[in-house]
């Protein structure tokens, strides 16, 4: 498969691996993390953002919608998602961006053409391409083809993964990935299931499997106040890292509420809407706790 649903291609990324990078965000994820900051990535299908604050009540969407899913009788724009066929006719006529398509079908060649626009910056900074999401392994054939294309162009490659895929897929992809940005969301098996919807057993098995194949990894650890900001979790992160031969560093990713606004645009309720950024001092204590149990570098992502 040489095409996949992409919801963003972000140029000049500096937090998704070394150097200046272009990050390709793919739709679809097998996990359902309560703190997800990219809720538009969860579904593999194309979706629609609706921002009523941007609407000018021009009613172009109402006139073109074949299923009557846009209503202005109350004087305000009401978008009725139930019954929407997701034909995206409305997003095509919305000039203000109040209605926006989330996800487009892109080919490997189309994505590579955009990625290669900044090749000179990769070469001078040690950067390259990063695949993220969602979960890139959900659209595996495309991911593998894109990584192979990137390698033919001599690009440094990273993939950010939750680790929940088949061992066979990881074995196929290892030769084309320079660094795995491997999520470590929760080390307690029961809590991992509660917070993400899946067990972490398969995830940890895959982490140790790719390490045995020589794959370089950075552990990416989202820390969410009230959920996994526990000393035993920090100690276990260090323990997992210490068990790996080819790990480069541990990245602490402090919670941020970006997912709240985007969930609203999708017409969904965000479960952590009242949670805010942790204080820098608090983040420093998290890092110190992990670092006290390992010699592997621990950094804020």
Question: Any chance you could write out the topology, listing elements then pairs?
Answer:
Blueprint lengths: L2 E11 L7 E6 L20 E4 L9 H5 L5 E2 L6 E2 L9 H5 L5 E4 L1 E4 H8 L3 H7 L2 E5 L7 H13 L3 E6 L5 H7 L5 E5 L5 H8 L4 H12 L4 E7 L7 H12 L4 E8 L3 H8 L14 H12 L6 E3 L1
Helix pairs in contact: 3-5, 9-11
- Which geometry do the CA atoms define? globular
Topology pattern, helix = H, strand = E: EEEHEEHEEHHEHEHEHHEHEHHE
Number of helices: 11
pLDDT < 50 stretches: none
**Strand order, largest beta sheet:** 7-1-2-8-9-10-11-12-13
Mean pLDDT: 97
Q: What's the helical proportion of residues?
A: 25-40%
The structure class reads alpha/beta
Termini gap: 33 Å
Largest sheet: 9 strands, mixed
Radius of gyration in whole Å, from Cα? 20 Å
């Amino acid at each position: 498969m040489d095409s996949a649903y992409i919801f963003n291609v972000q140029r000049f990324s500096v937090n998704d691996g070394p150097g200046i990078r272009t990050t390709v965000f793919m739709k679809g994820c097998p996990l359902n993390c309560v703190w997800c900051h990219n809720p538009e990535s969860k579904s593999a299908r194309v979706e629609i953002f609706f921002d009523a604050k941007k609407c000018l009540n021009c009613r172009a969407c109402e006139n073109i919608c074949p299923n009557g899913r846009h209503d202005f009788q109350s004087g305000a724009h009401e978008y009725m998602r139930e019954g929407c066929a997701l034909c995206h006719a409305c997003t095509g006529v919305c000039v203000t961006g109040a209605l926006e398509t989330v996800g487009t079908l892109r080919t490997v060649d189309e994505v590579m053409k955009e990625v290669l626009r900044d090749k000179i910056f990769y070469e001078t900074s040690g950067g390259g391409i990063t695949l993220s999401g969602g979960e890139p392994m959900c659209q595996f054939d495309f991911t593998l083809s894109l990584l192979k294309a990137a390698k033919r162009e001599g690009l440094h490659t990273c993939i950010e993964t939750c680790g929940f895929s088949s061992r066979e897929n990881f074995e196929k992809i290892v030769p084309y990935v320079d660094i795995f940005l491997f999520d470590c969301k929760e080390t307690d098996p029961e809590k991992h299931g509660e917070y993400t919807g899946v067990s972490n057993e398969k995830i940890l098995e895959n982490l140790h499997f790719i390490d045995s194949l020589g794959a370089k990894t950075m552990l990416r650890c989202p820390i969410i106040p009230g959920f996994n900001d526990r000393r035993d979790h920090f100690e276990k992160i260090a323990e997992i890292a210490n068990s790996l031969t080819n790990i480069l560093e541990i990245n602490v990713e402090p919670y941020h509420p970006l997912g709240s606004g985007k969930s609203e645009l999708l017409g969904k309720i965000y479960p952590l809407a009242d949670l805010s950024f942790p204080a820098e001092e608090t983040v420093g204590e998290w890092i110190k706790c992990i670092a006290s149990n390992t010699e592997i570098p621990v950094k804020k992502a």
